[in-house]
Amino acid sequence: MATKSLAHGMGTFYKDCEHAPSRWSKRPHEYKIRYRSAAGKQTEEAGFSTQEKAIDRLTTVYQEKKAAPRNQGKAERIQKYGAMQFREYTAEWKAGQRDLAESSLRTMERNGAGLATQSNAFDKVKSVLLDAYASASTRRTPSWA
């Protein structure tokens, strides 16, 4: 799958096939686009029959993002995560991690985990907390405090 990038920050468009970009216009596959929303979350959309329609959509999204107030992304994160309990946030965060080993999900001391494993787990917890802070889910007094 090859992608074509537009101006910095606009996103990319592509076809989810093995054909070279030079042959895309002759292939029946739909174009897809990928971009970052105002909140910074990667978003994909599909169903564009032509390259021009995909570029038009990316241009529209880019202009909307640029026209939005600078703190709109922060406001959206606060709205989404502000009332969320930490346990819910960690479950969502954990679901989004690709390399989270099964050993990270069990009580490590009972299982005889070594210091290196425990240190790795600490780093994961630290990542969760930093990500939660950045997402504004801990801006209010947390329920677990």
Characterize this entry briefly.
With 145 residues, this protein is of the alpha+beta class.
Total DSSP helices:
4
In total, the number of domains comes to: 2
- Rg estimate, integer Å: 21 Å
Low-confidence stretches: none
Which sequence of SSEs, written as H and E, runs from N to C? EEEEHHHH
**Class of secondary structure makeup:** alpha+beta
Please list the strands of the largest sheet in the order they lie side by side: 1-2-3-4
Could you estimate the helical fraction of the residues in percent? 25-40%
Arithmetic mean of pLDDT: 76
Spatial separation of the terminal alpha carbons: 47 Å
The largest β sheet comes out as: 4 strands, antiparallel
Q: Estimate what percentage of residues fall within beta strands.
A: 5-15%
Shape by Cα distribution: flat
Number of strands: 4
